[in-house]
């Protein structure tokens, strides 16, 4: 993981300033959890029903979903309340190496109150084949450089970047191109959930080797 720095938090003791990778198999609820976190920060609400957070602007790159699907998920999570004005949604974006880093910095320069960027998911923003590093057969160097550049942006602006990534069925963070990402992340989140089951377990490990487990219920509905 990334070198240990003095810890600063976007969500106290849960989401640090810097780069956090959220990983689990496809359709295990990663996007629901990421959207819940984004809505809580954009509205200044509660995360996981009991953790208060400071309000700030959020950029959500919902690159695996269209606008309607994202809005439907938000409506479920907020019990029909409007999406906060502080949340900016993008469903198409540049890749790393083709303008993504520049666009992220431009957004942050225009939103001094920004606290979070969600990239959902990494496979849609990672550098294209023609921009890959030579002799990088397993993608480690590409993932390493991509994650380092994203972490640099997060630290420069004092925000969190939550990078959603699909993993193999066993959710091992070293499977599915995770080794290069893990080298630069400040925290790693693994969501364990049986499809069709409302309960889930969120495993969190940080660069300072602190590990936490949270039992989650339902669809991460925001507390009133």
Write up what this structure looks like.
The chain has one domain (17-216): Rossmann fold. It contains 5 helices and 12 strands. It has helices at residues 30-43, 67-77, 100-110, 140-157, 178-182; strands spanning 9-11, 15-16, 18-24, 46-47, 51-52, 57-62, 87-90, 114-120, 160-166, 187-192, 200-206, 211-216. An 8-stranded mixed sheet has the order 7-6-8-9-3-10-11-12. Strands 1-2 form a two-stranded antiparallel ribbon. Strand 6, helix 2 (67-77) and strand 7 (87-90) form a beta-alpha-beta unit. The termini are far apart.
Descriptive terms for the model:
Rossmann fold, eight-stranded mixed beta sheet, 224 residues, alpha/beta, 12 strands, 5 helices
CATH fold description? Rossmann fold
Class from helix and strand fractions? alpha/beta
The parts where pLDDT drops under 50 for at least 5 residues are 170-176
Q: What would the average pLDDT be, to the nearest integer? A: 86
Question: Which sheet architecture does the biggest sheet show?
Answer: 8 strands, mixed
Number of domain units: 1
> What shape does the CA trace take?
globular
CATH superfamily: P-loop containing nucleotide triphosphate hydrolases
Strand order of the largest sheet: 7-6-8-9-3-10-11-12
> What is the beta-strand fraction?
25-35%
Q: Give the % helix.
A: 25-40%
Topology pattern, helix = H, strand = E: EEEHEEEHEHEHEHEEE
C-alpha end-to-end distance? 36 Å
Number of strands: 12
Number of helices: 5
Radius of gyration: 16 Å
Query: What is the CATH top level name?
Result: Alpha Beta
Name the CATH architecture. Answer: 3-Layer(aba) Sandwich
